[in-house]
Predict the structure.
Amino acid sequence: MFRRKPKLNKKQNRKLEDLCFQGNLNDDIKIIKDMFGDSSDLVVRFIDSEKERSVAVLYLESLVERESIEEYVISELNENYKQDQNLKELHFATIKKEATSSIKDSLTYLLQGHSLVLGENQTSGIALDTAGGERRQVSESEVETVVRGPRESFNESLQTNIGLVRRRLHTHKLKVHEMKIGELSQTPVAILGIDGVVKPEMYEEVKSRLEKIEIDGILDSLYLEEIIEDPNGYTPFPTIFNSERPDRIAAGLLEGRIAILLEGSPGTLLVPATIGLFLTSNEDYYQRYDFASFLKMLRGFAFFLSVVLPGFYVALLTYHQEMIPTPLLIALTGQREGVPFAIAIEVLFMEITFEILREAGLRLPKTIGAAVSIVGGLVLGQAAVEAGLVGQATVITVSLTAIGSFTTPSYNLAISARLIRFALITLAAVLGAFGLIFGLIFMYIHLTTLRSFGVPYLTPIVPFHKDNWGDLLIRTPWWAMRERPNEVAGENQKRMSDSRDNNHLNRRQKK
């Protein structure tokens, strides 16, 4: 279930763990340098005290903020340090200050952006939090855009991302559990959940799965997503939700879900995830419920269209032409005069061409990517029709399919639809409508077997929970959504009081 890596030599681990500072400044610095292999970004700055080098500051230049070192560390040592004075007596004005005598712990502090102060004849150093460097500022998400609602998105800083969530949930019940994953990367990971709202056993299950991971390095949230997801076998459907929006994650926490944040990645994971979560845009809750319900139904229909339409077109024109009205059949037949390929080949050719154009638009610079994908699609489509390679109806069908896939809120689910679409086209080309229906039935059976941290993927459809249908295909008013989704919420199921009903009752009594 989990990918494991052979552990390091126990003698090497024990040797590093047993190493401690000996009190000889030059020898202690040499050990640190040897551990880093004389890396160019390891800086050693000596502070002279009474014409002797009795104290030194070590840090990795690529991970620290120089102004903090100069203002809080170097200035304090120059002004107040005296020879053979205990370093613990100095008052460094940094956020964190830790004493350490272990070489291994000191290396960890340096790699986290701390500065290490070592002194002559002192067997312990002082690690000071001076982490910094260039980081991307909080900005608007380029993937999950909204017309109305917050514009902030996560960046690559874990503490910044936790702060963005806490600014939306001002409660002491928000639990944050941090750990490090990756033997070489030592990537900080945080697990968030609201006490009383989240199920305790689910929170512990998430912690357990993360703690079992043994890997060299974690560079993005997808690493965790593929390792900790339920063993469902192969599935094209995503079973863990991913988002860059703090408001989306805060909304999931309020429902009883668990968020997993990662240092170095703006993508935050949300578990457990059900099919309704991928078909919902957070903007649905920033619009009036009637308009939001219309948009949710429209997106659901467009998603279904993007999956089924090409296969239905292939089955209809290949095996079931008697179902097409005669005037329409004559028009379609006239368009295909001179086309040398079968319907299925036409559709596959246009689908693959469109996928290439979409991928090219993503990889090109933003200023020309959109223009190339749009103009390229128009030019190639028109050229293919004029050359007699495809029919006009095929171009229209593929275009409608592409537009429908763009309406899917979740990019991961849209990718799944693209893969399933090719399978349904193949089945329709071989067996016609029977193959298409067989593919849809098989997909439904597959979806009923999926689990996300033990929660059925099709909840509240299967198993059936009528109380949660008001937030699946439509969006009921806020005053009607008093209960949290019972498939994920813990003891505290109620999220809204019955004040609206009480107000109506009081008005009737007054009348």
